[in-house]
Each structure stands twice: as structure tokens, then as C-alpha cells.
Amino acid sequence: xxxxxxxxxxxxxxxxxxxxxxxxxxxxxxxxxxxxxxxxxxxxxxxxxxxxxxxxxxxxxxxxxxxxxxxxxxxxxxxxxxxxxxxxxxxxxxxxxxxxxxxxxxxxxxxxxxxxxxxxxxxxxxxxxxxxxxxxxxxxxxxxxxxxxxxxxxxxxxxxxxxxxxxxxxxxxxxxxxxxxxxxxxxxxxxxxxxxxxxxxxxxxxxxxxxx
Amino acid sequence: xxxxxxxxxxxxxxxxxxxxxxxxxxxxxxxxxxxxxxxxxxxxxxxxxxxxxxxxxxxxxxxxxxxxxxxxxxxxxxxxxxxxxxxxxxxxxxxxxxxxxxxxxxxxxxxxxxxxxxxxxxxxxxxxxxxxxxxxxxxxxxxxxxxxxxxxxxxxxxxxxxxxxxxxxxxxxxxxxxxxxxxxxxxxxxxxxxxxxxxxxxxxxxxxxxxxxxxxxxxxxxxxxxxxxxxxxxxxxxxxx
Lengths: 212, 241
Hints:
Number of strands of chain B: 12
Distance between the termini of chain A: 23 Å
Helix content of chain B: under 10%
Number of domains of chain A: 1
CATH superfamily of chain A: Aromatic compound dioxygenase
CATH topology of chain A: Protocatechuate 3,4-Dioxygenase, subunit A
Number of helices of chain B: 3
Number of helices of chain A: 4
Number of domains of chain B: 1
Oligomer: heterodimer
Largest sheet of chain A: 8 strands, mixed
CATH architecture of chain A: Sandwich
Order of helices and strands of chain B: EHEEEEEEEEHEEEH
Shape of chain A: globular
CATH architecture of chain B: Sandwich
Largest interface: A-B, 81 and 90 residues
Radius of gyration of chain A: 18 Å
Radius of gyration of chain B: 19 Å
Order of helices and strands of chain A: HHEEEEEEEHHEEEE
């Protein structure tokens, strides 16, 4: 334990290590090429009874040389359609949908590099005390070979311009053009609403990542 | 959300930085612009919870959970420990997932081409929930060392990958556990990404003879610490409604 002045003692956090190239074995075994668990976690979390508008979130993740990465673990965490998280720390006076956990997990495809999340569009969530409400958003967490500590970012919705312009998190990003890296583009394909959210580790379009 | 629900600031000096040329793959996968510091909102203090009925009875037994015609080859080994937070409080009912190579150092993964053979009876992954004391336990086969393409002759020490959730998404952590006494530890490029020597040392599980099973298997102890919340007031408030 790291000694601190005045006898304060907190346990130091366990250091992170890369998830490595074979992260799929543990977290997405079907992508690694085998079936082992009776129940698997997935990127399709919009079950039949879940309330809300069905959406698809998809995109690719680019490295610093502009190459598409094909081995990245993608996890998302979001509020339900009413804008409430399924967690006891969220005491907002909004309805809870017990059929919706709000967490998804997938990997970028080994061939195409595309990741796909099938979910519902979240509602807006209360901001910190004294701040405006946060625009609808999905929290992303990325881990892979070459990532030493998981990368946190957020995806906002391109068709929520008014809410985005008031969002207390987007607005702390000093360079307004960098906010665009967090905003997904809406389109429709075969009757489905698709939000395209590409992520760039580096370069002119480097995504804003957060120290949360 | 009350301020008590917030997490302590992450001490980034205990972790590897994103850009570590000793581990070549990190060079093109590390953000170049500093992370934006974000005070916790509901999006960070909340996170997914999992229930026991989502897991199968053999999910934490890597010796049996993929056994087809017999048991896997190698040293049966127990790994156990506690998941605690920075305040020393147990993190109960949290999901711990593990994955690893087999006894020969080969991963059951379509992208692994190492010469060591796949073991038909070993999958190499498991998962479990901590109990109310934050305790977890699993049985496995001790993994072998294997080479990886970093330098010309880079080898990984035997290790087990761990994924842990905690109670809020800002606690999310993936790490690796090593085995006490492994001579490859001082040569490893992945451990070398951690600048703080004492932090790196905490990733080495200790031989735990008291937890071993005589004439059956050895045991290793590996405790995991996640970020603490501002205080346990959080828990009390929840229980009190």
C-alpha cells in the first residue's frame, strides 16, 4: 500500500494491462471461433420487450496510420429510452425498464473491421448538480492489443442538434471542431435507423477520449 | 446523484501510459491529444450489473468447462482472491472474467498460429461473480509461456487475463496476472509498460500453499483493487432508501 501523509491509507488501484490480441476468447468466445458458455453477452441488446426506438450503431476504428483495426473490443453503456440508467445510483424520477440493462459488448469484425450494436435510442440524462441535462449519448469503452488502458469516449446523435448544443460535456471541449468527433451520423437502411460512429485513435480526426 | 457516488480520481501514475514504444503495437493505437478530464456524471458512476442465473455452474472451472473426451493436459491450479475498492471495501457481486493460453502456451483462437497444439479439452476462458466479501475463485490449468511478435525474440511470461466491472463503468478494468517466480517477468515488454515498479509487482500472484489441495493442485492468490468511491455513504444511502 502506498503510504500517504497523516496516516491516510487508500489501496492503490490494480494497474491496467492490454487486453491483447486474444481478448475474444474470454469476452466474445464465439468470435474467437468456439462456443463454451450457455449464455453469451452480445452487441444486440434491444430485446423484443424493451421500450424505445430501435437503432443500429456501427462504425470502424482507425489506427494512427489510417488502417482499420480488426481486433478491438467495444463495450457500450447507456440509459434507457426515458433517460435513466439501470443502476441504484440513478435516482432520477423516470421510469425504469428492467428488461433493459443498457450494456452491450461486441468486437470489430476480423475481415471488415466493422462493429455493430443493436440497441434503443437513449433519452437525455440529468447532468451534474447545477448543470444542464446531458443530450442523449452512449458511453463507449475500447480495449485491445496495443491499448494499455481502456479508452473511454461518448457517442452523441447527429439528429439531436439542439440538445447537443446545450450538452455540458460537449461544451467543455475547448476546440469546438473536435466535438464533431463524438457525433454519429444518422441514416436509414432497409427500414432501420443507423448511426455511423467511426473512432480514430490518432491523426487529424482523433476522437476525443475522456479521463473519467 | 449525490457527490458520494463519485469515484476518486484515477491515479494514472499507477497505470501504463497509452504510448509505450517498448510495446510496439501501442504506438499507432495511443491517442496523441491529452484525455479530456471529465467530472463524474450519472454516466460514469453507473454501470452494468450481472446476476448468478446468467452464468453456468461450470463457468468458473476451466478444467471442466470445455472437457470433451477427458481433462485438459497440464498443472491444475487454483487462482483466488478478493476484489476490493480503494477504500478497502469488498466489491461484491461483480463480474470477473478470465482467459488464457493452454499448458503449451497456445490460445484457442483463430488468429493464434503458435506451434504448440490446441488442447481438445481446454477452452481457456471462465467467469464468475464475487461473493458478498468480494471473494472470487476459479480452477484452471497453469498456462504456458509463448512468443509474440514484438521484438525478434519476445516471450510472454505465463499469465491470465482478467476483466473486472465494479459498480460503475468508470471502474472498468482489464489487466493480466502473472505467477510468482516466473523468470520471464523481468524480460516482458507488456509488464514493462508500467513505469511504477511496485505497481507492476502487484500483478504477480503469490504462491498460496494454504489454499492448495494436497496431492492435487497448487494455488495462487491475486487480489484486485478498483477505484474507490468518495465514501461508503453511498452504500448506506442506498440501503436506507
